Amino acid sequence: MGILELKTVAQAMLAALCLAMVGVTYGATFTEQFSTFSSDGYHVQVSPDGNEAKIVLDQYAASGFGSKQQFLFGNITMKIKLVPGDSAGTVTAYYLSSDQPAHDELDFEFLGNTSGDPYILQTNVFANGIGGREQRINLWFDPTTEYHTYGVLWNQKQIIFTVDNKPIRLYKNSRDLGIAYPNSKPMGLYASLWNGDSWATQGGLVKTNWTHAPFIVSFKDFSSLDGCVVTDNNISPCTATTTHWWEASAFQTIDRHQAEQILWVKENYEVYDYCKDTKRYPTEPSECARNVPQL
Ligand SMILES: *[C@@H]1O[C@H](CO)[C@@H](O)[C@H](O)[C@H]1NC(C)=O
Ligand SMILES: *[C@@H]1O[C@H](CO)[C@@H](O)[C@H](O)[C@H]1NC(C)=O
Ligand SMILES: *[C@@H]1O[C@H](CO)[C@@H](O)[C@H](O)[C@H]1NC(C)=O
């Protein structure tokens, strides 16, 4: 072997090693997974190791970030520590969205409050541009002191919204009832922090107190986006039900324990459910009944 060939072999080995390392760590850091909606280096702040990102809201700007990849189905979770202290008027949004006309969207919106008063977590489901499926709960812990995990287990049969892996909401595929379901549009994952004081806190009565700015929400665990990534707009690898663990029969329904957890949340922490809002929906939307777990 000549010197030149040796160099080539060494380079090939190095390249293979790098590839292997990329394979191991791919998608683990913030910059691998996300692009920010802020270029000033202040309103989105990423830790040097790439494991934590903070969004900063002040009078000058709201901000956020979005995933570089688009997903169709999976177990998509992230850890979030919400704005501490006086967060009244602020809204932390964390959502999957297909971002197109007649879009699909799965929402977590955290509505801030004055110090000591409870946050509200609002979830919503849009399919084919139609939303209006808000549910609101209080949380059973203070979401501002530590990180908690929020996410969805989303497959072709159902969507389970989870908080610390506890199911808080079930949304079944009701296409058999003529209701659109998010099952064909790849969605990006987004997070933002903005001023929503026209509606967020006590229906808009409490305004953002800018003397308490900057408001800061923190995110981590960027490696747990376990979804089917759509490339070149080709969704068929993601709709193939046999290749993805989240389509297994164990995840097509909920078990008794999960049903009990959802009912526990509904009984103790629910503050609003579109299904029960007879002003908006004089007739209960037809998907509602099957989304309440039966014991
Ligand atoms: C804020 O606290 C008040 C008083 O406890 C409560 O009525 C309200 O639902 C809380 N959350 C929001 C987002 O307004
Ligand atoms: C805003 O916060 C400041 C400082 O805590 C306080 O003095 C002021 O009363 C607050 N404003 C409102 C409208 O609550
Ligand atoms: C979904 O992801 C979270 C975070 O990685 C994990 O804790 C949870 O067990 C996963 N869900 C399932 C059903 O595997």
UniProtKB/TrEMBL annotation:
<dbReference type="GO" id="GO:0010411">
    <property type="term" value="P:xyloglucan metabolic process"/>
</dbReference>
<dbReference type="InterPro" id="IPR044791">
    <property type="entry name" value="Beta-glucanase/XTH"/>
</dbReference>
<dbReference type="Pfam" id="PF06955">
    <property type="entry name" value="XET_C"/>
</dbReference>
<dbReference type="GO" id="GO:0009505">
    <property type="term" value="C:plant-type cell wall"/>
</dbReference>
<keyword id="KW-0961">Cell wall biogenesis/degradation</keyword>
<feature type="domain" description="GH16">
    <location>
        <begin position="24"/>
        <end position="219"/>
    </location>
</feature>
<keyword id="KW-0732">Signal</keyword>
<comment type="similarity">
    <text>Belongs to the glycosyl hydrolase 16 family.</text>
</comment>
<dbReference type="GO" id="GO:0016762">
    <property type="term" value="F:xyloglucan:xyloglucosyl transferase activity"/>
</dbReference>
<feature type="active site" description="Nucleophile">
    <location>
        <position position="105"/>
    </location>
</feature>
<comment type="function">
    <text>Catalyzes xyloglucan endohydrolysis (XEH) and/or endotransglycosylation (XET). Cleaves and religates xyloglucan polymers, an essential constituent of the primary cell wall, and thereby participates in cell wall construction of growing tissues.</text>
</comment>
<dbReference type="InterPro" id="IPR000757">
    <property type="entry name" value="Beta-glucanase-like"/>
</dbReference>
<keyword id="KW-0326">Glycosidase</keyword>
<feature type="active site" description="Proton donor">
    <location>
        <position position="109"/>
    </location>
</feature>
<keyword id="KW-1015">Disulfide bond</keyword>
<keyword id="KW-0134">Cell wall</keyword>
<dbReference type="InterPro" id="IPR008263">
    <property type="entry name" value="GH16_AS"/>
</dbReference>
<keyword id="KW-0808">Transferase</keyword>
<protein>
    <recommendedName>
        <fullName>Xyloglucan endotransglucosylase/hydrolase</fullName>
        <ecNumber>2.4.1.207</ecNumber>
    </recommendedName>
</protein>
<keyword id="KW-0964">Secreted</keyword>
<dbReference type="InterPro" id="IPR016455">
    <property type="entry name" value="XTH"/>
</dbReference>
<keyword id="KW-0052">Apoplast</keyword>
<feature type="glycosylation site" description="N-linked (GlcNAc...) asparagine">
    <location>
        <position position="113"/>
    </location>
</feature>
<keyword id="KW-0378">Hydrolase</keyword>
<dbReference type="GO" id="GO:0071555">
    <property type="term" value="P:cell wall organization"/>
</dbReference>
<feature type="signal peptide">
    <location>
        <begin position="1"/>
        <end position="27"/>
    </location>
</feature>
<dbReference type="GO" id="GO:0048046">
    <property type="term" value="C:apoplast"/>
</dbReference>
<dbReference type="InterPro" id="IPR010713">
    <property type="entry name" value="XET_C"/>
</dbReference>
<dbReference type="InterPro" id="IPR013320">
    <property type="entry name" value="ConA-like_dom_sf"/>
</dbReference>
<dbReference type="GO" id="GO:0009834">
    <property type="term" value="P:plant-type secondary cell wall biogenesis"/>
</dbReference>
<keyword id="KW-0325">Glycoprotein</keyword>
<dbReference type="GO" id="GO:0004553">
    <property type="term" value="F:hydrolase activity, hydrolyzing O-glycosyl compounds"/>
</dbReference>
<dbReference type="Pfam" id="PF00722">
    <property type="entry name" value="Glyco_hydro_16"/>
</dbReference>
